[in-house]
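User: Hey, quick favor. My workstation is busy. Could you predict this chain's structure for me?
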Amino acid sequence: MPAAEPDADLPLALYVHFPWCVRKCPYCDFNSHALQEALPEQAYVAALLADLATELPRVSGRAIRSIFLGGGTPSLFSPDGIARLLEGVGARLPVSADAEITLEANPGTIERGRFADYRGAGVTGVSLGAQSFDPEHLKVLGRIHDAQDTRRAVDELAGAGIENFNLDLMYALPGQTQEQALSDVEAAIALAPAHISHYQLTLEPGTVFSGRPPAGMPDPDAAADMQLRCQASLARAGYAQYEVSAYARTGRRCRHNLNYWQFGDYLGIGAGAHGKLSRRRGAGLLVERSARPREPRRYVAAVSMTDGAPGWREVPIAELPFEFMMNALRLVEGFQEREFEERTGLGCAVIAEALGRAARRGLIGREGARWRATPGGFDFLNDLLAEFLGEPPQSRAR
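Assistant: No problem, here it is.
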């Protein structure tokens, strides 16, 4: 079998996971661990760079177009630590001059003045986990900050000259009324972020909330009404929805997340991080995914081995249609058949029957060259995606 070669035509991003938080939130199913001892900043940054070094042969000749520092709470790491990391990345891989470099931050873990230092380290954007501006809802969610901390953090961003920032906001919270949900959105808009992530609280398996559901969760109809009212408010303020939970001002869509949703390539380093790469193999594509050990100490031990952190596996061809659709159909703009072929290496004949079934159910439609979820398909996205499970590929892209 001929060797698979890196596909330099596909965009490449880098995700870096920081697994520690001051306290684990009861709704959170991300790989995060409450910090019980001193933060091993120096050792962890060294492990991240060692991990990245093992991946270099897979991405030879490709430039990083975006970097996302996620968690957990990356802002627990000092600006010096972030600078060492980004300098180390740039020494190992070419990074585009206009790369989007985003730091996730909890408003409760930022000291005054530090955003200027993070900017000096190379950070170009910040995502703040506001979640709500209501003190009771923040308490129920287990957040360690209050609304004033969020406002103070936004002031610090302005002082640091970081205009490209996102606010994470949740709705359908325990005991939340439609008016309260709308008030949260209006409070966020008043801070003039470039981007707002507005998503519904769900009880994810393995979380505290899943084991002990909080009282007063809004029913599905109430949650849907909240979403519609909040969407209308966001639209009036100039925030266009471009993904299920993402709203942005003109020119401020998150390039890193768009790369995920458009089935681009990305390296994932850090405890529990995932990656996805496509490589040319003959006339087709070899699509692979990686997963790092979730527990921080196991991760650091794994990358200290001579062969690096384990975890790459080939995605079976039969799974590629669903994998592509699971991302692309989250986008308001949907996808073009050409994009499906370029990103999967498969011909569109393999999804023709599924597209037809979904169209007959009113879940998807075609406008010009683009397929996109209908409003009903967007509301029942899982039903739409189920149409692409188990599709047997029968042809390759030409």
